[in-house]
Amino acid sequence: MNQENLVPLRYPLSAKGALEPPAEWAELRERCPVARVRLPSGDEASLLTRYDDVKMVLSDPRCTRRLDAEDAARISESESGGVFNAPMATALYSAGQQRWRMMLTKWFTAKRVNALKPGIVAMTDRLVDEMIESGHPADIKARVGFPLPVWVICDLLGVPDTDRDRFARWSDMMLNLTRYGQTEIDAAEAEFGAYLTAHLDMKRADPGEDLLSSLLTATDADGAGLTDIQLVATGQALLVAGHETTANMIGKMLAMLLSERRRWERLVADPSLVRTAVEEALRFDANPGFGMPRYVEQNIEVAETLLPRGTTVVCSMAAANRDENTFAGADEMTLDRSPNPHLAFGSGPHSCLGQSLARTELQTVLEVLLRRLPTLELAVPAEELRRVEGLVVGGLRELPVRW
To answer: GO MF terms on file (predicted)?
Structure first.
């Protein structure tokens, strides 16, 4: 019954608990894999929830990120339509996605990320030291989950992590769905743009060994570099994506593992499971946020449904990651699951550029906490955990723990 739901579902879908999936996912995958949804903006889109469909659309060159097209659905209820429709997204799209990625790829290779790991471990230990010294209960998201990825991405970009509170405020504004008004968003975008413009001017005068300094003189195969607007947009995109999603995922991963004590205890007993446990947390995440929108440039058929040119499609990677046709026991968190071809980082040529870095941060946090605080536990019942609301990204407002 593809798109036969006469009344569009209100999207994002709601769930009973902060760690639970929306009840509709299973039924949509079975009976309505291409469903009509109404976005916070009031515009309609088509929601995909099956693994094969989501993977196909994310990899299909006919489905693009051109969310600034006149007939593309606006995502956010704000006038600008949100981060996917924003000038930052337009600037990066105009740079040519693959050209832009090629200019950044060397900064996110496994070799370079491995070289960063000792510093990430040291910073995690330092943050855990400070949390222990302050005593418990403690909000581990605020004490470890947020400052660690901010420090990592700021170090990579060559910007001071002492400005992290400003980055967090600007990021929240840019990731707005329903929380902020257009005036607040415009002011944040202007402040963020001015900050990065001034920072890039300093880098031109005194370049360092960081990513942004490198991009000032980087060129593609044709000898062309990025424009000033594209450089600012790159800085914004990397600062937002480089800390917001990882900070939230650290909190959610720990909540998943601590909410079922046997999961945490199994990892304490066998830390060699850290790598597969991180992958399973990424797959099992039922609170990932909005999903990935795509704009259909040419007519395509998905799950025996024609999606005409101009359709905006929302790919729910999280719903796809619970598809029983791909993952046996999909609604169970299996710490040693292998293989685990989840779609948490997307798929195809537009998959997450920083996934190697995100994996390293998640694995490091888990390794350090298992070593330092094996008695770690939730300080509140899992049912009392609260979701981040009104933003494109999913997460927990706080994660109170004790040890």
So the answer is: heme binding; iron ion binding; monooxygenase activity; oxidoreductase activity, acting on paired donors, with incorporation or reduction of molecular oxygen
